[in-house]
Structure formats: structure tokens, C-alpha cells
Amino acid sequence: MTSFRWLLCIAVLLNCLPPLNAQTAIGTSNITFTTIDVPGAGYTGIWGINKNGEMVGNYGQDTNGASHGFLYSNGTFTYFDYPGETVTVPHGINDSGLIVGSTGSNPVYGFLYNGASFTTLKDGSDTATYCDGINNAGVVVGGAGDIYTTKGFQMKNGHFKPASPPGTYVYIYGTGINNFGTIVGWTDYDGFLCRGGACQTFQFPGAIQTEAWGINDMGVIVGWYNPSSNYSYAFALKNGKYISFGYPGALFTGALGINSAGQIVGQYTFDFQTWHGFVTSPVSASDF
User: pTM for the whole thing?
Assistant: First the structure.
């Protein structure tokens, strides 16, 4: 599997969750974008951001070629690769700076990276373990199985537990988890939310595809959706109210992570060849 899978994955109340699909209020916002690109790269994706504003992502020259990891902090890039692999994709970073991601093409392994060394993560005998999010307690979420089908999971101290909504799907990935243990992710066509062991799917109103990628401690969920058009847009969701936004003129804008301050990170493209990373101004309560 190429690094393109990582650039465009297209192809709360105890145990009682709110009816997300029934909540259809859509608003506008004054979100502003700051582009962040690795110098000289053909694509840049930013996948996670912590409360300190440290960001992680991947870059390369061609979305079908090698992918390298980076940490972006205080205007400086620090680059890293999983030893011996051509695909390294960091997806999340917690407030202590612990980075989670995945490496390899087939098989695929998850990893934890502390800035000096890697710890490999693998779910049993599965040939693919994709690790996408991490909270301050070190709980990791992702999807495991093989490159042709996956189920969502949460993992702590090497112990994997299922984290999937009911139903039959080819792909399920847990992609974000906050410090209260609330998980978001996506299935073949829907986003999903898990709280207290109960999971349910949701869709942006009128969309044919919705992917949730991040959630912060205020319960703001971010992701992207396609409304059956040539354009895909980012969204933020809180208490049943959606904000839709896109980089001006872009064919695709994906929100992939959000921190406690409400800053959102992600990527956008004008041609599906060159990709740019971004961070936004903070989302506030008034935006909803």
C-alpha cells in the first residue's frame, strides 16, 4: 500500500450517545489558514497537533513513492524515518510529545516514537496494524487486519480492544481519541463516535462520504466530507452543530487533527498531485 492511502483515505453521555445523524444544523466560520509545507516536497500532510502547537505529518515527492515523517515545532522541521522502511507516516502526538504512526506497505506496523527510539506495535497475527491517534494516557487507536480489510481498535500497554461501530464494513479505523477516552474514526462511508463502549456512525448532512479524524477534550470533532461533487470539504462538529470550511479554491480540504486550543491541522490540494499542509486559527464556541 502506497503513502497515498495516508494522504486521502477516500477509494457525550456515558453509554448513551446522542443521535448524531439527526442533528443537522450547519454554520459558517471565520477560520483562517496558514500553509505549512516541507521545503522542496511534492506533498505535505499534517495529521496531528498537541496543546503546545507541535505538529506531526509526512512528506515526499510523489504520493505513490516514499513517505517520510516530520515533527514541526516553533517553525522548525525535524525529520525521521522508521529504520529500514520507505514509508513512515506519523499520525498523532500527545502533550508529552509521544508520536504514534505506521510504517511499511505490506506488512504494515504501528509505532510509537519518543524522539529517540521506536517501539513497534502489532495486533496479534494481523499483517496490518495502522495506528492513527494517541491521548495523554498513552491509549492508541487505529485499525488492524490486513491491507484489504480492517477493524477498529484501542490499545494500551500492548493490549488491544475492539473499537468499531455495529454493522458490516470492509474498513474501520479509529483515528482520534481525547483524554476522556472518546474515540472517533471512519468506516467505508461514515464517520463514527465511540463513548463508554458504545459506538454509532454519523454523516455530514447530505454527504455521500464522511470521515472523522480528530476530537479534542471540548468534544469538537473534525474530519472531511464529500457532498457528491468534485469538491471535498473539512468540517468541525460540536453538540450537533456542523461547521463546513475549505481552503479557497481547493478541490479537497481535509481536517485531520485538533488540539485543546481548537487549532485544526490537515491538508489541501488543487489538483490531487501536489498537497499542502495547514493549521487554522482556533475554533471557538462562537463559531458554532
Answer: 0.91
